[in-house]
Design a protein that fits this description.
Blueprint (H helix, E strand, L loop, with lengths): L1 H51 L11
């Protein structure tokens, strides 16, 4: 019976650690998603700025 209790305690400890890990990973994923959104907005803004400079800048200087 004592062995079963020890096993249950060990499983509860593992479960608690896994929950903490899932929460930490979720926080990191949320943060990464926010950074990606921010970078996408910056890219769109730069694309619009370049587009407003005129069609003469749409071709590469090498062409």
């Amino acid at each position: 019976m004592e062995e079963l209790r020890e096993r249950i305690v060990e499983l509860e400890i593992r479960y608690a650690h896994q929950n903490i890990m899932v929460e930490e990973l979720n926080t990191e994923l949320t943060s990464a998603h926010a950074r990606i959104d921010h970078l996408e907005r910056k890219i769109r803004a730069m694309h619009e700025m370049l587009g407003s400079l005129g069609p003469e800048l749409t071709e590469s200087p090498d062409e």
